């Protein structure tokens, strides 16, 4: 082990730690100057709104901007301190001990944690390369399973990077209408697409302003920066108003300063070009990651995503991999990854998630080479 660590500290970029663990952009692709200007613009344009408490629905100009983006009345929108808080509020409204909830297998680890903490009966449904296995959902429903909620990350899914196909989106909406459950469309990565064509949201497929069975969540953490901590819900006004009451009791109002800065930045001149730079950088990074995995870890299977932050890697199950050992061996070589077991209720010992959003292109090859060494050492 000691010799392996010494080997990784010999040459240039190989001496640097490489983290494929955190789903966040590196600071070089964040428009820091633009955000500084947006903060100044926001305080200049609306000092009272920026410095006051506001209300639980969020900063009103931003709420209106979001409503216009999705083609719904403002009563359908609530702005929160990040999309994870939006998730938590919705779970608190719809999930009680014993409530059946369907979700993808694998899915975001914080989703699993939040649902299990609330005592949900979580049923995980196979995740295929074109999204959740909707006919498996249909079979569960035919067997009498009655979920209150189906949670899905439809675009560049975390942890897999997969995208739900149009046909499956339409089928999920159809099933939700037939069996009267809510589809929670958790979609924070949708706007960081760097290849391929965008797909309609299930919120739109369910009628947009007339939607009764889809609640949509999104975030500005991926398009602007994570530290801004601004997300939102769009859904039927009855559900949104229940969440508003809960938000009022939680904090009276979310962070008006952060939301005001987001609004100033979105309506300013710099946002479109800045978002394009983010998407270009992510596309370059995933391209290099794709190449490096094929060269250094050819036994791995994965699907190159068309956007987002993540890529899911599976190693041949028959080789008997132990992802906990792989994680430890990788850490000893200065490489951080997240084990597949974190995203599942069981299984995942031969899988791991790689986040490429924060890794400079010049560090990808070194990181993957050391990761391949870790995989070999873990088997040995």
From TrEMBL:
One of its GO terms (biological process) is alpha-amino acid metabolic process. This is DNA-binding transcriptional regulator, MocR family, contains an aminotransferase domain. SUPFAM superfamilies: PLP-dependent transferases. CDD domains: AAT_like. Its cofactor is pyridoxal 5'-phosphate. It comes from Klenkia marina. Keywords: Aminotransferase, DNA-binding, Pyridoxal phosphate, Transferase. The keyword Transferase applies. The lineage of its organism: Bacteria, Bacillati, Actinomycetota, Actinomycetes, Geodermatophilales.
């Amino acid at each position: 082990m000691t010799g392996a660590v010494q080997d990784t500290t010999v040459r240039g970029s190989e001496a640097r730690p490489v983290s494929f663990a955190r789903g966040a952009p590196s600071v070089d692709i964040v428009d820091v100057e633009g955000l500084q200007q947006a903060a100044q613009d926001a305080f200049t344009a609306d000092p009272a709104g920026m410095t006051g408490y506001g209300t639980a629905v969020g900063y009103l100009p931003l709420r209106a901007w979001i409503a216009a983006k999705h083609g719904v009345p403002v009563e359908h929108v609530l702005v929160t301190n990040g999309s994870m808080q939006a998730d938590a509020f919705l779970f608190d409204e719809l999930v009680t001990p014993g409530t059946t909830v369907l979700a993808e297998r694998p899915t975001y680890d914080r989703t699993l944690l939040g649902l299990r903490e609330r005592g949900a009966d979580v049923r995980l449904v196979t995740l295929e390369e074109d999204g959740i296995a909707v006919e498996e959902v249909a079979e569960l429903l035919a067997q009498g399973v009655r979920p209150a909620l189906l949670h899905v990350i439809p675009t560049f899914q975390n942890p897999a990077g997969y995208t739900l196909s149009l046909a499956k989106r339409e089928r999920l909406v159809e099933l939700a209408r037939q069996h009267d459950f809510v589809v929670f469309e958790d979609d924070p990565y949708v706007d960081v697409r760097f290849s391929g064509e965008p797909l309609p949201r299930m919120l739109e497929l369910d009628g947009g302003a007339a939607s009764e069975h889809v609640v949509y969540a999104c975030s500005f953490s991926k398009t602007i920066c994570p530290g801004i901590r601004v997300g939102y819900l769009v859904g039927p006004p009855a559900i949104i108003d229940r969440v508003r009451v809960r938000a009022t009791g939680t904090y009276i109002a979310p962070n008006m300063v952060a939301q005001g800065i987001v609004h100033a930045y979105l309506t300013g001149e710099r946002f479109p070009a800045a978002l394009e730079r983010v998407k270009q950088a992510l596309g370059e990074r995933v391209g290099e990651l794709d190449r490096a995995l094929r060269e250094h870890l050819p036994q791995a299977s994965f699907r190159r995503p068309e956007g987002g932050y993540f890529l899911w890697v599976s190693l041949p199950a028959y080789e008997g991999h132990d992802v906990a050992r792989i994680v430890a061996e990788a850490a000893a070589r200065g490489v951080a990854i997240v084990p597949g077991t974190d995203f599942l209720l069981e299984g995942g010992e031969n899988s791991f998630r790689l986040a490429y959003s924060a890794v400079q292109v010049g560090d990808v090859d070194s990181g993957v080479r050391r990761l391949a060494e870790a995989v070999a050492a873990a088997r040995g």
